[in-house]
Amino acid sequence: MARGMKVKIEGLRELDRALGQLPKATGKSVLRRVLKEAGEPIARAARDRAPKLELHLVENIDVGTKLTRRQAALHRKTFADDRASAEVFVGAADPAGVQQEFGNERHPPQPFMRPAWDATKRQALHIIEHLLWTEIDKAAQRQARKAAKAGK
User: Fold this and answer.
1) What is the pTM of this model?
2) What's the burial of 66, exposed, middle or buried (CB within 10 Å: 0-12/13-18/19+)?
3) CB 75 within 8 A of CB 1
């Protein structure tokens, strides 16, 4: 069974405070947009590294917020419900992806997801750090315009 990986970014307390200033739903939406954008370089790298004989595998590598029913049953949420948090997943919806990544009794492993993560994780974290400020600012400006419009 494949295990999830946790990434903790330290030193971003200001970002967390700014997110806390937004309504919870808006904060979640901002986080999802940023995480999807940051996941794209990982997905592209995985598509490039995936075995080409399995085109259906390449076509099924994506970034999203939903898991298959089986994946959801195996997944454990680690975030508290009372905080604005979001999860985004990068990988293949095709179960053959696990067989390709880790191998089985019929063929050896052909890893493509882990090397993609290793090659692009710093880029993804950089995108999160910088794009999150931009998205928080945009959301705060939208909230201010809505408040001003409602106040007229």
Assistant:
1) 0.79
2) exposed
3) no
